Protein backbone atom coordinates (compact mmCIF):
# COMPACT_ATOMS: atom_id res chain seq x y z
CA UNK A 1 0.00 0.00 0.00
CA UNK A 2 2.99 2.31 0.52
CA UNK A 3 3.82 1.99 -3.20
CA UNK A 4 0.26 2.89 -4.09
CA UNK A 5 0.43 5.89 -1.77
CA UNK A 6 3.60 7.16 -3.44
CA UNK A 7 2.05 6.68 -6.88
CA UNK A 8 -1.02 8.69 -5.96
CA UNK A 9 1.08 11.41 -4.40
CA UNK A 10 2.71 11.80 -7.81
CA UNK A 11 -0.69 11.86 -9.47
CA UNK A 12 -1.95 14.55 -7.12
CA UNK A 13 0.95 16.96 -7.35
CA UNK A 14 3.59 15.64 -9.69
CA UNK A 15 6.17 15.79 -6.91
CA UNK A 16 6.47 15.43 -3.15
CA UNK A 17 4.58 18.41 -1.77
CA UNK A 18 5.71 20.40 1.24
CA UNK A 19 3.63 22.56 3.50
CA UNK A 20 4.14 26.22 2.62
CA UNK A 21 4.61 28.67 5.43
CA UNK A 22 1.94 31.32 5.86
CA UNK A 23 2.86 34.72 4.51
CA UNK A 24 0.95 38.02 4.41
CA UNK A 25 -1.91 37.85 1.93
CA UNK A 26 -2.21 34.10 2.20
CA UNK A 27 0.01 33.32 -0.80
CA UNK A 28 2.44 30.42 -0.72
CA UNK A 29 6.12 31.36 -1.04
CA UNK A 30 7.51 31.06 -4.57
CA UNK A 31 8.97 27.69 -5.46
CA UNK A 32 7.11 25.75 -2.79
CA UNK A 33 4.92 22.82 -3.74
CA UNK A 34 1.20 22.78 -3.19
CA UNK A 35 -0.24 21.55 0.10
CA UNK A 36 -2.06 18.33 -0.68
CA UNK A 37 -4.96 17.85 1.73
CA UNK A 38 -7.30 14.86 1.61
CA UNK A 39 -10.78 15.37 3.05
CA UNK A 40 -12.36 12.09 4.12
CA UNK A 41 -14.97 10.57 6.43
CA UNK A 42 -15.87 7.26 7.99
CA UNK A 43 -19.38 7.23 6.56
CA UNK A 44 -21.43 9.06 3.98
CA UNK A 45 -23.87 11.79 4.86
CA UNK A 46 -21.68 13.77 7.25
CA UNK A 47 -21.25 16.70 4.83
CA UNK A 48 -17.72 15.94 3.62
CA UNK A 49 -18.07 17.08 -0.01
CA UNK A 50 -20.10 20.15 0.93
CA UNK A 51 -17.43 21.08 3.43
CA UNK A 52 -14.66 20.54 0.87
CA UNK A 53 -16.27 22.86 -1.67
CA UNK A 54 -16.98 25.61 0.85
CA UNK A 55 -13.54 25.31 2.41
CA UNK A 56 -12.09 25.76 -1.07
CA UNK A 57 -14.04 29.00 -1.44
CA UNK A 58 -12.88 30.24 1.96
CA UNK A 59 -9.25 29.45 1.09
CA UNK A 60 -9.66 31.29 -2.21
CA UNK A 61 -10.93 34.32 -0.30
CA UNK A 62 -7.68 34.22 1.68
CA UNK A 63 -5.74 34.55 -1.56
CA UNK A 64 -4.90 30.88 -2.04
CA UNK A 65 -4.99 29.27 -5.46
CA UNK A 66 -7.17 26.23 -4.88
CA UNK A 67 -7.62 23.06 -6.91
CA UNK A 68 -10.27 20.51 -5.90
CA UNK A 69 -9.92 16.92 -7.11
CA UNK A 70 -13.18 15.00 -6.89
CA UNK A 71 -12.05 11.51 -5.91
CA UNK A 72 -15.33 10.30 -4.41
CA UNK A 73 -15.85 7.17 -6.46
CA UNK A 74 -19.36 6.82 -7.82
CA UNK A 75 -20.61 9.77 -5.75
CA UNK A 76 -18.88 12.63 -7.53
CA UNK A 77 -20.86 15.67 -6.41
CA UNK A 78 -18.46 18.60 -6.56
CA UNK A 79 -19.95 19.79 -9.83
CA UNK A 80 -23.47 19.40 -8.43
CA UNK A 81 -22.68 21.64 -5.45
CA UNK A 82 -21.04 24.20 -7.72
CA UNK A 83 -23.92 24.09 -10.18
CA UNK A 84 -21.63 23.21 -13.10
CA UNK A 85 -21.30 20.42 -15.65
CA UNK A 86 -18.07 18.86 -16.86
CA UNK A 87 -17.27 17.17 -20.15
CA UNK A 88 -14.24 15.20 -18.98
CA UNK A 89 -13.06 13.42 -15.84
CA UNK A 90 -9.62 12.54 -14.50
CA UNK A 91 -9.23 9.29 -16.41
CA UNK A 92 -9.92 11.00 -19.72
CA UNK A 93 -6.31 12.15 -19.46
CA UNK A 94 -5.39 8.63 -20.59
CA UNK A 95 -6.64 9.59 -24.03
CA UNK A 96 -3.78 10.97 -26.17
CA UNK A 97 -5.80 13.94 -27.38
CA UNK A 98 -6.97 15.09 -23.94
CA UNK A 99 -4.78 17.58 -22.07
CA UNK A 100 -4.84 18.85 -18.49
CA UNK A 101 -6.48 22.05 -19.71
CA UNK A 102 -9.32 19.97 -21.14
CA UNK A 103 -9.98 18.27 -17.78
CA UNK A 104 -9.57 21.29 -15.50
CA UNK A 105 -12.86 23.08 -14.91
CA UNK A 106 -12.82 26.76 -14.04
CA UNK A 107 -15.79 26.81 -11.73
CA UNK A 108 -17.48 29.75 -10.04
CA UNK A 109 -16.05 31.61 -7.02
CA UNK A 110 -12.52 31.23 -8.36
CA UNK A 111 -12.44 27.47 -7.79
CA UNK A 112 -10.74 25.14 -10.25
CA UNK A 113 -11.55 21.44 -10.05
CA UNK A 114 -10.97 18.10 -11.72
CA UNK A 115 -14.20 16.09 -11.98
CA UNK A 116 -14.38 12.53 -10.71
CA UNK A 117 -16.67 9.65 -11.54
CA UNK A 118 -17.21 5.95 -11.06
CA UNK A 119 -14.39 5.13 -13.48
CA UNK A 120 -11.89 6.71 -11.10
CA UNK A 121 -11.57 3.41 -9.24
CA UNK A 122 -9.54 2.17 -12.23
CA UNK A 123 -6.70 4.48 -11.23
CA UNK A 124 -5.15 1.85 -8.94
CA UNK A 125 -5.12 -0.76 -11.73
CA UNK A 126 -3.76 1.17 -14.70
CA UNK A 127 -0.65 0.00 -16.56
CA UNK A 128 2.78 1.56 -15.88
CA UNK A 129 2.78 3.33 -19.24
CA UNK A 130 -0.65 4.81 -18.51
CA UNK A 131 0.49 5.81 -15.05
CA UNK A 132 3.44 7.66 -16.53
CA UNK A 133 1.13 9.51 -18.91
CA UNK A 134 -1.13 10.59 -16.04
CA UNK A 135 1.82 11.77 -13.97
CA UNK A 136 3.16 13.72 -16.91
CA UNK A 137 -0.14 15.49 -17.56
CA UNK A 138 -0.96 16.09 -13.89
CA UNK A 139 2.50 17.36 -12.94
CA UNK A 140 1.51 20.98 -13.57
CA UNK A 141 -1.20 20.82 -10.89
CA UNK A 142 1.47 21.41 -8.26
CA UNK A 143 2.33 24.70 -9.95
CA UNK A 144 -1.23 25.82 -10.59
CA UNK A 145 -2.36 25.71 -6.95
CA UNK A 146 -1.21 26.59 -3.46
CA UNK A 147 -3.66 24.10 -1.95
CA UNK A 148 -4.98 20.90 -3.54
CA UNK A 149 -8.06 19.53 -1.79
CA UNK A 150 -8.84 15.88 -2.57
CA UNK A 151 -12.44 14.95 -1.80
CA UNK A 152 -12.17 11.21 -1.17
CA UNK A 153 -14.92 8.68 -0.81
CA UNK A 154 -16.19 7.65 2.60
CA UNK A 155 -15.13 4.54 4.47
CA UNK A 156 -12.15 2.21 4.20
CA UNK A 157 -12.09 1.24 0.53
CA UNK A 158 -8.75 0.62 -1.13
CA UNK A 159 -8.85 3.76 -3.21
CA UNK A 160 -9.89 5.90 -0.23
CA UNK A 161 -6.94 4.68 1.84
CA UNK A 162 -4.58 5.20 -1.07
CA UNK A 163 -5.62 8.82 -1.41
CA UNK A 164 -5.39 9.69 2.29
CA UNK A 165 -2.03 7.94 2.67
CA UNK A 166 -0.66 9.84 -0.33
CA UNK A 167 -1.74 13.24 0.99
CA UNK A 168 0.43 15.50 3.14
CA UNK A 169 -2.49 16.20 5.45
CA UNK A 170 -5.83 14.53 6.16
CA UNK A 171 -9.01 16.19 7.39
CA UNK A 172 -11.38 13.61 8.88
CA UNK A 173 -14.96 14.89 8.91
CA UNK A 174 -17.45 13.50 11.40
CA UNK A 175 -20.57 14.51 13.28
CA UNK A 176 -21.39 13.93 16.97
CA UNK A 177 -23.70 11.02 16.06
CA UNK A 178 -22.52 7.67 17.54
CA UNK A 179 -22.48 5.88 14.17
CA UNK A 180 -20.39 8.63 12.59
CA UNK A 181 -17.94 8.57 15.49
CA UNK A 182 -17.60 4.80 15.31
CA UNK A 183 -16.83 4.94 11.61
CA UNK A 184 -14.44 7.86 12.10
CA UNK A 185 -12.52 5.81 14.63
CA UNK A 186 -12.28 2.96 12.10
CA UNK A 187 -10.60 5.36 9.64
CA UNK A 188 -8.24 6.56 12.37
CA UNK A 189 -7.33 2.98 13.18
CA UNK A 190 -6.54 2.06 9.57
CA UNK A 191 -4.59 5.29 9.11
CA UNK A 192 -2.51 4.59 12.23
CA UNK A 193 -1.38 1.23 10.83
CA UNK A 194 0.12 2.67 7.62
CA UNK A 195 0.92 6.24 8.76
CA UNK A 196 1.73 6.22 12.49
CA UNK A 197 3.51 9.55 12.06
CA UNK A 198 0.88 11.00 9.74
CA UNK A 199 -0.92 14.32 9.93
CA UNK A 200 -4.64 13.86 10.55
CA UNK A 201 -7.02 16.42 12.02
CA UNK A 202 -10.70 16.26 12.87
CA UNK A 203 -13.49 18.54 11.71
CA UNK A 204 -16.65 18.11 13.77
CA UNK A 205 -19.61 19.01 11.58
CA UNK A 206 -23.17 19.88 12.58
CA UNK A 207 -22.50 20.71 16.20
CA UNK A 208 -24.78 22.84 18.36
CA UNK A 209 -22.00 24.75 20.11
CA UNK A 210 -18.23 24.88 20.44
CA UNK A 211 -18.32 22.97 23.73
CA UNK A 212 -19.97 19.99 22.04
CA UNK A 213 -17.21 19.96 19.43
CA UNK A 214 -14.53 20.09 22.12
CA UNK A 215 -16.05 17.14 23.97
CA UNK A 216 -16.33 15.01 20.84
CA UNK A 217 -12.81 15.82 19.67
CA UNK A 218 -11.34 15.20 23.13
CA UNK A 219 -12.94 11.76 23.37
CA UNK A 220 -11.69 10.71 19.92
CA UNK A 221 -8.21 12.07 20.60
CA UNK A 222 -8.01 10.31 23.97
CA UNK A 223 -9.14 7.03 22.42
CA UNK A 224 -6.60 7.39 19.61
CA UNK A 225 -3.75 8.01 22.06
CA UNK A 226 -4.75 5.13 24.32
CA UNK A 227 -5.46 2.42 21.78
CA UNK A 228 -3.78 3.55 18.55
CA UNK A 229 -0.81 5.44 20.01
CA UNK A 230 -1.25 8.38 17.66
CA UNK A 231 -2.06 12.04 18.19
CA UNK A 232 -5.15 13.33 16.39
CA UNK A 233 -5.71 17.07 16.45
CA UNK A 234 -8.90 19.00 15.80
CA UNK A 235 -8.93 21.71 13.16
CA UNK A 236 -12.34 22.95 14.28
CA UNK A 237 -16.08 22.64 13.89
CA UNK A 238 -19.07 23.77 11.85
CA UNK A 239 -22.38 24.62 13.46
CA UNK A 240 -25.55 22.89 12.38
CA UNK A 241 -27.19 25.51 10.18
CA UNK A 242 -30.44 25.57 8.24
CA UNK A 243 -28.70 27.77 5.65
CA UNK A 244 -26.56 24.79 4.59
CA UNK A 245 -29.55 22.65 3.65
CA UNK A 246 -31.17 25.54 1.81
CA UNK A 247 -28.01 26.18 -0.22
CA UNK A 248 -27.69 22.52 -1.22
CA UNK A 249 -31.26 22.51 -2.54
CA UNK A 250 -30.39 25.45 -4.77
CA UNK A 251 -27.05 23.93 -5.87
CA UNK A 252 -25.04 26.78 -4.40
CA UNK A 253 -22.25 26.66 -1.82
CA UNK A 254 -23.48 28.17 1.43
CA UNK A 255 -20.36 30.36 1.57
CA UNK A 256 -21.72 32.13 -1.50
CA UNK A 257 -25.45 31.88 -0.84
CA UNK A 258 -25.35 33.00 2.80
CA UNK A 259 -21.89 34.39 3.61
CA UNK A 260 -23.03 35.68 7.01
CA UNK A 261 -24.52 32.37 8.15
CA UNK A 262 -22.97 30.67 11.16
CA UNK A 263 -21.75 27.75 9.02
CA UNK A 264 -20.00 30.19 6.68
CA UNK A 265 -18.34 31.93 9.62
CA UNK A 266 -17.10 28.57 10.87
CA UNK A 267 -15.64 27.56 7.51
CA UNK A 268 -13.82 30.89 7.19
CA UNK A 269 -12.31 30.21 10.63
CA UNK A 270 -11.26 26.72 9.50
CA UNK A 271 -9.51 28.18 6.45
CA UNK A 272 -7.84 30.81 8.60
CA UNK A 273 -6.50 28.13 10.93
CA UNK A 274 -5.25 26.04 8.01
CA UNK A 275 -3.27 28.92 6.55
CA UNK A 276 -2.27 31.00 9.55
CA UNK A 277 -2.66 28.59 12.48
CA UNK A 278 -4.94 30.90 14.44
CA UNK A 279 -7.22 29.14 16.90
CA UNK A 280 -10.88 28.88 15.98
CA UNK A 281 -13.10 30.86 18.35
CA UNK A 282 -16.54 31.08 16.78
CA UNK A 283 -19.51 31.42 19.11
CA UNK A 284 -23.16 31.31 18.19
CA UNK A 285 -24.05 34.37 20.21
CA UNK A 286 -27.58 35.59 20.69
CA UNK A 287 -28.33 36.02 16.99
CA UNK A 288 -27.09 32.51 16.25
CA UNK A 289 -29.22 31.16 19.07
CA UNK A 290 -32.33 32.83 17.67
CA UNK A 291 -31.65 31.57 14.15
CA UNK A 292 -31.17 28.03 15.38
CA UNK A 293 -34.20 28.16 17.66
CA UNK A 294 -36.60 29.37 14.99
CA UNK A 295 -35.21 26.94 12.41
CA UNK A 296 -35.93 24.08 14.81
CA UNK A 297 -39.42 25.47 15.28
CA UNK A 298 -40.34 25.31 11.61
Core attributes:
Rossmann fold; 8-stranded mixed sheet; single chain; 298 residues; alpha/beta
Question: Can you tell me about this structure?
Answer:
With about 300 residues, the protein is α/β, with parallel strands linked by helices. Helix content is about 45%, strand content about 15%. Mean pLDDT is about 85; it is low at about 10-30.
Count of distinct strands: 8
Please count the helical segments: 13
User: Strand sequence of the main sheet, in spatial order?
Assistant: 3-4-2-5-1-6-7-8
How is the biggest beta sheet arranged?
Answer: 8 strands, mixed
Poorly predicted runs of 5 or more residues: 11-31
What is the N-to-C order of secondary-structure elements (H for helix, E for strand)?
HEHEHHEEHHEHEHEHEHHHH
**Helix/strand class:** alpha/beta
| Number of structural domains | 1
Average predicted local confidence, pLDDT: 84
The CATH first-level class comes to Alpha Beta
Gap from first CA to last CA: 49 Å
The portion of residues forming beta strands comes to 15-25%
CATH superfamily: P-loop containing nucleotide triphosphate hydrolases
Helicity, as a percent range: 40-55%
In CATH, the topology is named: Rossmann fold
CATH architecture: 3-Layer(aba) Sandwich
Which outline best applies? Answer: globular
How much is the radius of gyration in Å?
18 Å
Task: Provide a quick synopsis of the model.
The chain is an alpha/beta fold and 298 residues long.
Fold topology:
Blueprint: H1 2-13, E1 35-41, H2 48-61, E2 66-71, H3 78-82, H4 100-103, E3 105-106, E4 112-114, H5 128-138, H6 141-144, E5 147-154, H7 158-166, E6 169-174, H8 178-194, E7 200-207, H9 210-228, E8 233-239, H10 242-249, H11 254-257, H12 262-276, H13 285-296
Parallel strand pairs: 1-5, 1-6, 2-4, 2-5, 6-7, 7-8
Antiparallel strand pairs: 3-4
Helix pairs in contact: 1-5, 1-7, 2-12
Amino acid sequence: MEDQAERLRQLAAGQKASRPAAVPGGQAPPGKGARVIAVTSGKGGVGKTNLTVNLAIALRQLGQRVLVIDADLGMANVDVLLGTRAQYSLLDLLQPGVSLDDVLVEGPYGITYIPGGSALEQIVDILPAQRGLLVQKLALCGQLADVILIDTGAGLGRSVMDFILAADEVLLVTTPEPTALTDAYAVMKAYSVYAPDGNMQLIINRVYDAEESSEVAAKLAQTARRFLHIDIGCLGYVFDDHAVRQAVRHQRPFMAATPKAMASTCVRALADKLIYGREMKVKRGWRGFLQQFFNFSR
